[in-house]
Amino acid sequence: MVSNPVHGLPFLPGTSFTDSTKTAFHRSQTLGYRNGYAVARRPTAGIGGDRLQVNQLSQADLDELASKASLLTYGQPKQPPPADFIPAHVAFDKKVLKFDAYFQEDVPMSTEEHYRIRQVNIYYYLEDDSMSVVEPVVENSGIPQGKLIKRQRLAKNDRGDHYHWKDLNRGINITIYGKTFRIVECDRFTQVFLESQGIELNPPETMALDPYIELRKQPLRKYVTPSDFDQFKQFLAFDKQVLRFYAIWDDTDSMFGECRNYIIHYYLMDDTIEIREVHEQNDGRDPFPLLMNRQRMPKVLVKDSKTFPQCVLEISDQEVLEWYTAKDFIVGKPLTILGRTFFIYDCDPFTRKYYQEKFGISDLPRIDISKKEPPPVKQELPPYNGFGLVEDSAQNCFTLIPKPPKKDIVKMLVNDNKVLRYLASLESPIPEDKDRRFVFSYFLATDMISIFEPPVRNSGIIGGKYLGRTKVVKPHSSVENPIYYSPGDFFIGAMIEVFGHRFIIRDIDDYALKYMESNAAQYSPEALSSIQDHIRKREAPASELENKQAEVDPGMQELEALIDTIQKQVKDLPHRDNICEAFQVHDKEASGYVDKEVFFKTCGSLNIPVDDSLIKELIRLCRHGEDKINYYNFIRAFSD
């Protein structure tokens, strides 16, 4: 064999060339047979027998193989295929968590028990996170039992969250539809499942027991030998002998309670008691004669007698330690029967004789139970609030729907259309208010006051109604008992204070003078003296004026006759007071005369028929000079 002369040369650029001595260019065999089967095998040499570079390992591969652990003989292990997806309703099908719980239920209509313990089972279904509550059925329990809450997802809070198995544990309370359940225990499967999920379970608790059921489990009392008392002898000895007591039941302390009379009969033959009602004529009660039928009445019950079904069975000596007897009925002492406390105040003569012979009690009293009526409660009005009149505000305290205060009808009829008028000035430090004049009108029918300010041209003050009709309170009177101004307070020089404004009376009309003369007792001496001085001052110029009129106008008698004729014939004319106020507005000096033009303009505003022949003649007789008319004489024709 000839060795390759180029073998061992470095594989560098320029040094690579083909081997001219090489003659075999066949490929290595990649197929073979094993045990009669064709199998593929890896070639060990390349074309022409050259070594395969792919099979040569680098230094990094050698280092990796040196540090790599040995593997299986046949290479890397195959990875298992991914597990198939299994839905929850398949994975958790028929897997249910069971918890033992109870809840407490109030029993308001029973005297034997106040509450009831009801035991339930809570089931949690893992496949859809639903829950149900089932109460085991107890035979003859009288309570609807079974499925209390059907299978559904139960709300945990108001935010829409639902109960999950992570929220359930032993020793906790859960609230479902307003009922609080106490979980005390769970089964073995539930315990293993919760612990496998990393939940630490609380220690189990004992199931609460119903007190009434436990009371029913107590053993029955032993038989008691009856006494050897001869009831037949008692029946023969005291047949038709009855003790009669008169008692009352005072229930006035409670709402709608009252004091009612009763008669208590005690039958000596069998120690039974009967309570009869005392009915009076037209008392408005149903005619039931008996409050309690004749029966023996227990006084002291045995310790465990509260569980005895008294509503369906009669009480016997086994349930009672002591019965009511004749010695318990004493006149003057209270007695409680069936929850009602009766007070015995009297008895009949047979009962007094029996107590004297049997018990030696001879001085049974007769107690007077008549109650004295309490004194009437004085009605006090609340403080005045300042709105409206005191009389109007006080009506709200008398009735639910206030009514107007009562008026003095006789006074209103007698003093109808009677008005006292006064001329007043305003007491004010402001110079512009010194010349202002006001007309006070006092209405005798209602004791009200109105104030009118005559308008003055170019004064800068708007005249007209200053105060409407109202009662004016004196400044120094109290709010609870107000004192109003009366006619006796109005005289010349008097100061009237109206809601903080002070007025001084300067003059009064003729009707007010006549009223003061006829009712002098209502006025003080100071008021009468001021009026007398005012009359003296007025009579001096008035007499001079009358003398002049008598000299100028000799037809005074004609004027009086004409006034009488007008009063009899002419009807539907304005009232004298309204006409007088209209003319006084224009008569600033109170002289009794106004201009001719003003006179006719005022008559036109008052709808006075000046075209009437009698009225024309009256105006002619009242004329004073060329431009003046005496309206005092004119308005006399319009009053009685």
UniProtKB/TrEMBL annotation:
InterPro entries: DM10_dom, EF-hand-dom_pair, EFHC1/EFHC2/EFHB. GO terms for molecular function: alpha-tubulin binding. The keyword Repeat applies. Pfam families: DM10_dom (PF06565). SUPFAM superfamilies: EF-hand (SSF47473). GO terms for biological process: cilium-dependent cell motility; mitotic cytokinesis; mitotic spindle organization. Its main location: cytoplasm. Residues 93-198, 239-359, 416-520 form the DM10 domain. It is found in: Cytoplasm, Cytoskeleton, Flagellum axoneme; Cytoplasm, Cytoskeleton, Microtubule organizing center, Centrosome; Cytoplasm, Cytoskeleton, Spindle pole. Keywords: Cell projection, Cilium, Cytoplasm, Cytoskeleton, Flagellum, Repeat. GO terms for cellular component: axonemal microtubule; centrosome; mitotic spindle; spindle pole. Microtubule inner protein component of sperm flagellar doublet microtubules. Interacts with the C-terminus of CACNA1E. Interacts with alpha-tubulin. This is EF-hand domain-containing protein 1. It comes from Phyllostomus discolor (pale spear-nosed bat).
